[in-house]
Here is the input.
Amino acid sequence: MKDNFPPNPEYMELHNRRYEVRAFRKSADCVLLRGMVRDDKPHGLYLEDDTEPLTIHHMIVDIEISFPSMVIQSAQVVFESHPHTECTGIVNHYQGLVGLSIARGFTHKVRELFGGPRGCTHVTALLSAMAPVAIQCAWSMRIASAREDKSMNIPREQMTPEQRENLFAMNLNTCHVWSEDGDTVATLRAGGEIDPPIPVMVRLKELGRSPDDWAKFRT
Here is the structure.
């Protein structure tokens, strides 16, 4: 993968922040969401003649989420690197995540519970970055479950209206494509199919495979 931020010799680099969020399928009804935020100062900036970057913040958050309810079952916050001894005193406060839905309203609730002096600004920012990944996992979880249990591959036209609605419930009104009044939602509610994601179509073409192969893996 190409580096999106190649070194620019014209300017002095001041700061590098990285977020990484990964999701894992622990079981058919549990998702493990792991997030990381890391702040590095470039070498030689804080400590002259130092040849290595200096990590100021490095926090890791593990959240277990029930599926499909998307309710948080457990949460763990770890401070790998932090600037002040007192920083870690807020770790246990994040147990307040347990019982929250990570779907709608999560970011607002996080700000309410952990914003400002009620939390660590870096962990709280990371949580806001993790929530959309959990939503993205809904499709992946259904695909993985359908591969294990072929009986779940019910043709759209045979689904009940409630089953169709559940397929995209977490996407509804999250962006203009998923507007409740838009063409995408209308197609799915009518039992129709929407086009595969563009990256899937590109990869199928690269592999010399038919677009019909997508139907084997979507649900």
